[in-house]
Amino acid sequence: MEIREISFFNEFRCIEGQCSETCCKGWLIPLYPEDVSRYRQEKNILGLKLLIARAGVGRPAINRANGSCPFLNKQGMCSLQLKKGHEFIPEVCRTYPRFYRNYQRFEERHIDLSCIAATRIFLKNWKMAEMIKYDADPVADFTYTNDDFKYLESLYGAKLCIIDELKKVDSFDALKKVCDALIAYSSDAQNAFILGETDFFDNNAFGGYLSVYERGPDKHPAFPFSVTDYSFLLEDTCLYNSKLLLANKTLYDLCMLYYEKYRNEMTYEKIWRDMYGEFMRKYDDLATHFAGYIAYYLHQYFLKCFEDYSFLKNMRIGVMHMNMVFVLSVLLEKDEGRFDTENVARVFSVYNRRAYFNAGIPEDMYEVWNKR
Question: What's the DSSP call for residue 219?
């Protein structure tokens, strides 16, 4: 099969005990049948530990409580890997944060930003990145029902064209314009397909929207949101709950900046505008990272439209994710008085660990958009 692999895919190296946001905490680790079979063969103390670790109802898994994995040692290392080698640990742990999706005609391969080491690589390389093509056996199974592969290639081409425009973003003003144009473009695509005009992506380049699109005075901006919208996103979604402290302390602390320190200030639109306006002025050069975040979302999730044709919904969710990492970044900078690329990586990775692995969060976010 043809493989389409992001050009920095093989640069990832786990930083092991040096990691400030270990992937051995905060996750339920699913086990595949091959993992279970391998662990059942173990005897003595290790066999007993493995049996206890995967005990419970439902699909076999480790770390059901989402705290620290029982095999994470005090040095931040996996005791299973140290004792039995890399091939012994669960398949999910062996492949993470590598991401594979099979579209039958080709398989895409990326790295996921829920890992802080992967996020650092992405931020450093995404503007120069290309999709490398070669032939190999796929890793993932084909799970789609659609077989309109001409449409798939049109969708894929549109995705790359949008990412090319995102690579040109060098300021927050440019990012605002791109976000508004993204929503307009996906809205027009949605309407076109409803009318049976399925060649929309072949006939309409995204770059044209950037040159002519003007958001009307009656429309809410796609970025940044109003203080009311951000309050809905932080309070009316399941991003935050009482168990977050155990599973993802860094994200919990970021949420607490809102709930315990800046919530009252953020009831006033002018104060919020001053807050994000100052952030944008001080860190305008970091706008490219937030543009990169949208590019990451497109790389990973835009081709969901191959199955559901929900262009507008999927694009809105991507833009809302970017708004969420933006507001958390503004609050972190407000609290610490500084912000840099390492802070960006920190916010992106801890947010993604929660928001992209909880199916209820995107649906909650979409409901917030519909209230605007």
Answer: S
| 372 residues of the chain, pLDDT tens digit each | 999 999 999 999 999 888 888 888 888 899 999 999 999 998 889 999 999 888 876 788 988 777 889 999 988 899 999 999 999 999 999 999 999 999 999 999 999 999 999 999 999 999 999 999 999 999 999 988 999 999 999 999 999 999 999 999 999 999 999 999 999 999 999 999 999 999 999 999 999 898 766 665 557 889 999 999 999 899 989 999 888 888 899 999 999 999 999 999 888 999 999 999 999 999 999 999 999 999 999 999 999 999 999 999 999 999 999 999 999 999 999 999 999 999 999 999 999 999 988 888 988 998 888 877
Sheet holding 131-135, edge to edge: 98-102, 106-111, 2-6, 131-135
Q: Write the single-letter amino acid at 289.
A: H
- pTM for this entry: 0.93
Residue 177 vs residues 4, 148, 171, 215: alpha-carbon distances, Å: 30, 32, 10, 9
> Buried b vs exposed e over 167-199: b needs ≥16 C-beta within 10 Å?
bebeebebbbbbbbbbbbbbebbbebbeeeeee
